[in-house]
Amino acid sequence: MKIIVPIKRVVDPSIRISVKADGSGVDTSNLKMSINPFDEVAVEEALRLREVGTASEIVVVSIGPAKAEETLRHALAMGPDRALHIETDEMPEPLGIAKLLRAVIADEAPDLVILGKQAIDDDSNQTGQMLAALLGWGQATFASKLGIEGGNAVVTREVDGGLQTIRVGLPAIVTTDLRLNTPRYASLPNIMKARKKPLDKRPLAAFGLDTRPRLTVLKTEAPVTRTAGVKLASVTELVERLGRAGII
Amino acid sequence: MTVLLLAEHDTAAIADATLRALAAARQIGSEVHVLVAGSGAGAVADAAARLDGVARVLLADSENYDQMLAEPVAALLASLADGYDAIVAASTAVGKSVMPRVAALLDVMQVSDVVAVDGPKTFKRPIYAGNAIQTVTSSDATIVATIRTAGFQAAGEGGSAVVEAVSGPEPAALSEFVENFTVTSDRPELTSARVVVSGGRALGSAEAFERLLTPLADALGAAIGASRAAVDAGYAPNTCQVGQTGKIVAPDLYIAAGISGAIQHLAGMKDAKVIVAINSDADAPIFQLADFGLVADIFTALPELTAALEARAR
């Protein structure tokens, strides 16, 4: 079975971003960039399915600027077979991304698409669900466990009240939660090998799709920040202060 | 502007998250309709009809919607979309799964995690784990949005809407429910609790997490939360996780015990009215936003705090 894993290049999760003073957006220049952590979990899960003989081919796809190739090489070093880079400097919204991925899936005919549940930059949590809708496929979001049984994906999902297990007929869309697995580190030999793996590039315009944004960002502001309060010397003082503030 | 709000319920009562999302829906449009789906949901539909600000309740009484699986619920919402200017739901696990699917079926972009309504098509939403707030306006004919409920007050009673039966398309058999593993608790619900007591990795074990946090939560009538590190380590169930990808809380009092304060955790609790941090590391980032900080060993400070609160209550 063939698995497609879409991945996104984002600001590294350990970096604290800052908002531009003129309100025009987030300053991402010269920041360390990484694969979106949820997408790395998705790559790892696909590799595990190949290791147990369920999957035979894994293709990673990224939509983004020239430097997204670095992110694809990072993923390839983990083990996927090949990559597709859809090049664009204008990042489409999740709906546009889902339309591009639908076109890729029409070409590649995978049995399973595994995506991160959300990107840690825009925090939208939409692409997988939208892609499933456009394809008319079943979806299993927020997966913390994934198994393939017959023609189905059996997925345990992290939901508000606990865990829910559902069975989704293949082909299907699965989106990952962080507890699905712990991604491997790429070894140096694999990083070297990844440089020679096939990486196909296609300009976004070649797809002939309307991926213009539907949302206009009017402004981007820093949130109201809290300042540090007081450090107290003892539990007694803490209880006294909470009492005085009328909280307890 | 007419708004359709997807209700979540357990066939007995409407979820608190839906009551809060109703407040946001009323800010988006002047007329709000509520969709109640699921077999045996008639009583819930009647309760929805009594909510303040609800003009009409649509009841889809069918077992197709019993587990709120995304495919049939999204198909139902899309089939009802005609005539609505906006379709909204709370940013819960159900809302997050269903609504992007609805948006794609309608060929519109969803606005995720609305924290403020600036106009019928203009919203504020957090990005980068809440480290920036975007104001966005949509050019789509129909707004599809999820509401981050922590900042909205739950709607009360005071309405007398009509309940109308609706039905959706016969669903394609794309997915099926197998089982739920539900974590039950007598405690207040985490996302609506007035007080939250949260534990981090410093607790060291599931046993210590339970032994130290449960009595403290009991003394305060609090819900129990956890950092991602504590959940990953198996000290607490995933339902307790507070943070960027967990639950977003805004209680009157948030006590962070043995939590260092990663950006991702702060994203889930920084809107609490009062934050107390107890940590042995004086340089832990959590102290940078705590109103009251206590540099102390949690293994002695938490029992001491519990005893002091119990003594105070007597």
Characterization of the model:
The complex is a heterodimer of chains A (248) and B (314). With 248 residues, chain A is an alpha/beta fold. Chain A is 27% helix and 33% strand. Chain A has one domain: Rossmann fold (3-Layer(aba) Sandwich), CATH 3.40.50. In chain A, a hairpin with a 2-residue loop joins β10 and β11. In chain A, α2 crosses α5. The longest helix of chain A has 15 residues. Chain A is globular and about 65 Å long. The N and C termini of chain A lie far apart (58 Å). Chain B has two domains: 164 residues, Rossmann fold (3-Layer(aba) Sandwich); 124 residues, TPP-binding domain (Rossmann fold, 3-Layer(aba) Sandwich). The model of chain B has no long low-confidence stretch (mean pLDDT 96). In chain B, β7 and β8 form a beta hairpin. In chain B, the strands form three sheets. Chain B has a seven-stranded parallel sheet, with helices on both faces. Chain B has a five-stranded parallel sheet with strand order 13-12-14-15-16. In chain B, strands 6-7-8 form a three-stranded antiparallel sheet. Chain B has eight helices and 16 strands. At the A-B interface, α3, α4, β9, β10 and β11 of A face α3, α4, β5, β7 and β8 of B. β15 of chain A pairs parallel with β16 of chain B.
